[in-house]
Amino acid sequence: MTVVFQPTPATLLPTTDGRQFPVRRIYCVGRNYAEHAREMGDDGREPPFFFMKPADAAWCVADGETGVLPYPTQTSNLHHEVELVVAIGTGGRDIPAERAAEHIWGYAVGLDMTRRDLQNDMKKQGRPWEIGKAFEHSAPMGPLHPKASTGELTSGSIHIDVNGVRKQTGDLSELIWSVNETISVISRAWVLAPGDLIFTGTPAGVGPVVPGDLMVCAVQGLGELRLTVGAAA
């Protein structure tokens, strides 16, 4: 049987052990640090909620290099959100939180880039806000580090500097819903599979970037992600 057209190649992300990780789905957790939840208008330990990005929104900047993030169309308020990214290596449904770490292949530092003005417009209208989150190049990442080399990450600093000024800072231990709890909750709504990525939430301090800005992100033990914001299309 022939195909109508050649399928788009899978999104492959480099790993620090010299291999490539094929991306299946990208799940993102909203408002998963208390201070960020408060700055976005919520408070307390509300049940987690999720949105998704297309697999081809993910792309990698190698350690020691500075990538160029194209400034997206239709926005004048592009925001940075630095996050720990979890890569799933073993799938499953209804995964207990106490067994969730067994399903983790590795970790990376990532950015959930957000067209905040478009997201806010959709919120006001009570409509889905993928247009604010799920656009091209919206999920830049550093290389994936195998859990076998990092150990399970439950604490450690996370931050982003913009033009040398610290904008977001926190600790992985401050996640409202831990990585293991998040994996468990997602697996009750969807069947997790190898290749899935989970963006686990961002600390307080999200804010805008403009063309020419330099963003330097880090999660303790995972190196840096360096990006310059490119010109508007």
TrEMBL record:
Query: What species does this protein belong to?
Result: Ideonella margarita
What Gene3D superfamilies does the database record attribute to this sequence? Fumarylacetoacetase-like, C-terminal domain
What is the official name of this protein in its record? Fumarylacetoacetate hydrolase family protein
Q: Where is the Fumarylacetoacetase-like C-terminal domain?
A: 26-229
A Pfam match:
FAA_hydrolase
Give the UniProt keywords, A-Z: Hydrolase, Metal-binding
Q: Name one GO molecular function term.
A: hydrolase activity
Coiled coil stretches, renumbered? none
The record's annotation in InterPro entries points to: Fumarylacetoacetase-like_C, Fumarylacetoacetase_C_sf
